[in-house]
Amino acid sequence: MNEENNSQPPGRTPTTRTMAMPADTNPSGDVFGGWVLSQMDIAAGICAGQRSQSRVVTAAIDGMHFYRPVHVGDILGVYTTITRIGRSSMDILIEAWVRRDRIGIREKVTDATFTFVAVDDNGKSIPIPPKDQVPQYVKDKFGDL
Ligand SMILES: CC(C)(COP(=O)(O)OP(=O)(O)OC[C@H]1O[C@@H](n2cnc3c(N)ncnc32)[C@H](O)[C@@H]1OP(=O)(O)O)[C@@H](O)C(=O)NCCC(=O)NCCS
């Protein structure tokens, strides 16, 4: 078993939670990696948008690892941690964990670093505000950055 796969809570900000459904599978009945990636992108986008208080776009996805499969009926929880803030870009560590068949063991299934860029209505990059200029709920959720 990969050492990343244990039942310890991840200790990150829980950002989304959903259940893998039959419609998310390929013809063999396995959940698509693309579906999991999509859930991670959604969670990263929520985190990035709240931190920047603006529209955001995905600029890059680095180091995507699939440690364990996701099955229909698993609850997928996606956890976000901001690891770097630049002028307009930010890196967000995304970890996806499952609770097997709703009530079973908890396992980490994937992780990756997403780079998001804050943009205006025309898609042009804009500065991310300093932490002291964002609402308290953002400070509470996303740590020191
Ligand atoms: C992301 C995007 C706005 C950057 O445009 P750009 O003209 O390079 O913008 P800038 O030169 O002002 O750079 C903005 C920031 O993005 C970062 N950046 C640009 N391309 C990047 C990449 N491929 N990977 C990581 N960071 C990137 C820059 O380093 C810069 O960071 P900083 O402001 O923190 O220093 C543009 O490439 C874009 O719109 N891409 C498509 C996004 C999209 O549609 N995503 C969904 C795909 S399905």
Descriptive tags:
145 residues; single chain; alpha+beta; Thiol Ester Dehydrase, Chain A
Classify the secondary structure makeup into a structural class: alpha+beta
Provide the helix percentage. 10-25%
Strand order of the main beta sheet, please? 1-3-4-5-2
Low-pLDDT parts are: none
Distance between the termini: 33 Å
Number-wise, the strands total 5
Ligands bound, unique: coenzyme A
How large is the share of residues in beta strands? 35-45%
Which outline best applies?
globular
**Rg of Cα set:** 16 Å
Please summarize the sheet with the most strands: 5 strands, antiparallel
What's the CATH topology name?
Thiol Ester Dehydrase, Chain A
In the CATH classification, which architecture applies? Roll
The sequence of SSEs as H and E is: EHEEEEH
The total domain count is 1
Number of helices: 2
What's the gist of this structure?
By secondary structure, the chain is of the alpha+beta class. It contains 2 helices and 5 strands.
Could you explain how this protein is built, in words?
By secondary structure, the protein is an alpha+beta fold. The protein has one domain: Hotdog Thioesterase (Thiol Ester Dehydrase, Chain A, Roll), CATH 3.10.129.10. It has helices at residues 33-52, 136-142, and strands at 13-19, 55-66, 75-85, 89-99, 106-119. It has a five-stranded antiparallel sheet with strand order 1-3-4-5-2, with helices on one face. A hairpin with a 6-residue loop joins β4 (89-99) and β5. The longest helix has 20 residues, at 33-52. It is globular and about 45 Å long. It starts with 12 loop residues before the first strand and ends with a helix. Bound molecules: coenzyme A. Coenzyme A binds at residues 57-60, 86-89, 115, 117, 119, 123, 125. The site of coenzyme A (COA) has 13 residues, from β2 and β5.
